[in-house]
Design goal:
By secondary structure, the protein is of the alpha/beta class. It is about 25% helix and about 25% strand.
Length: about 350
């Protein structure tokens, strides 16, 4: 099969030929029709994730068709249209049994400790637990982000932020995750402020119903616009600067949700914890989407309350994946998700 692989962290990803994956007992092989280019893929390429071994095939958000299933798989068969969360949970531990598969301690991740979806075929472990059937009305391009960015945004808004109608949410970073958060929060009845340094990203945020402001002095402006601070904030980019500014933007007893990864030089940076203590703020992590949450997500899409297609900014071909991955570090990815179509 064709795949995109890199042999050194930061090295140029290349188009290579690799053996097809074989479905193990309980697993499935999915022929990839669409895969997203996510900032987490860029972090892995930079060597910020210790689980990645070289040479490596990146990619962790995808949609496609089941190619083959291993012994014991009962719920899926070749030809089924599917996606999967980027967290492949074991399906057996206490967290999985409680419906919190996104924090499964035995999880595996395509594009990190497993070969990823920048390939014609990708392996999904514990297929009966992790595969999600895709309705025919959701096309592959839109579905690619359900396993990571759009799904992650859904979990962050509804489960971690516990956002309610009438509340104010400030979203730092209006890329693929941020625009997904904005759409989901607006649909929930919240007032949303989008923050970014990019004019196209801010325009995309406005198109989804957010009030958009430049990142310069954003915390002070948000406190002024909201009469004391936002009820909730979200760092959808992942940097010490955006995380700190988001926390500084909260009203007393507000809630901050950290979605963007803090890796590399930002992994151990201090946050304004004195403000967290003095104002009784909540700082919450958010990691993917539980398999159990797909039912509500797909129902909202079917009812046209949400449109994952609106979070897609650019569609590229398979051969363009190397350049698209490298461009994320140059701030050249543009507004919204980049999705590569393989077929």
């Amino acid at each position: 099969m064709r795949a995109i692989s890199y042999a050194a962290f930061g090295g140029t990803p290349e188009l290579v030929e690799l053996p097809d994956p074989i479905a193990p007992p309980g697993g499935a092989v999915v022929r990839v029709h669409a895969t997203g280019v996510c900032r987490s893929d860029w972090h892995a390429w930079q060597g910020h994730d210790a689980s990645v071994t070289l040479p490596h095939v990146p990619g962790h958000e995808f949609a496609g068709v089941v190619e083959a299933v291993g012994e014991g798989v009962a719920s899926f068969a070749p030809g089924d249209r599917v996606t999967a969360p980027f967290i492949l949970a074991c399906g057996e531990c206490a967290q999985c049994r409680a419906g919190a598969s996104q924090v499964c301690p035995r999880q595996r991740q395509p594009g990190f400790d497993l070969p990823g979806s920048y390939a014609e075929k990708v392996l999904v472990l514990a297929a009966d637990h992790n595969l999600v059937a895709l309705p025919e009305e959701i096309d592959m391009r839109a579905a690619a982000g359900l396993g990571c960015r759009f799904g992650t945004a859904y979990h962050a808004v509804h489960v971690q932020a516990r956002l309610r109608a009438g509340e104010t949410l400030a979203v730092f970073g209006c890329g693929g995750v941020g625009l997904s958060v904005i759409q989901i929060a607006v649909a929930a009845g919240a007032e949303v402020i989008g923050v970014d340094v990019s004019a196209p990203a801010l325009e995309a945020a406005r198109a989804l119903g957010a009030r958009a402001i430049d990142a310069t002095g954003a915390a002070e402006r948000i406190r002024a616009l909201t009469g004391g601070g936002a009820d909730a904030t979200m760092d959808a980019l992942g940097s010490a600067a955006t995380a700190s500014a988001a926390i500084e933007s909260l009203r007393p007893r507000g809630r901050h949700v950290q979605v963007g990864l803090l890796l590399g030089a930002d992994a151990q940076r201090p946050l304004p914890m004195s403000r967290v203590i003095a104002q009784e703020l909540q700082v919450l992590g958010s990691h993917g989407l539980a398999v159990a949450e797909y039912r509500d997500l797909l129902a909202d899409i079917a009812a046209e309350r949400l449109d994952p297609q609106a979070a897609v900014g650019r569609t590229i071909g398979f051969e363009e994946l190397p350049e698209a991955l490298m461009a994320m570090g140059r701030g050249a990815a543009g507004a919204g998700m980049t999705v590569a179509l393989l077929s």
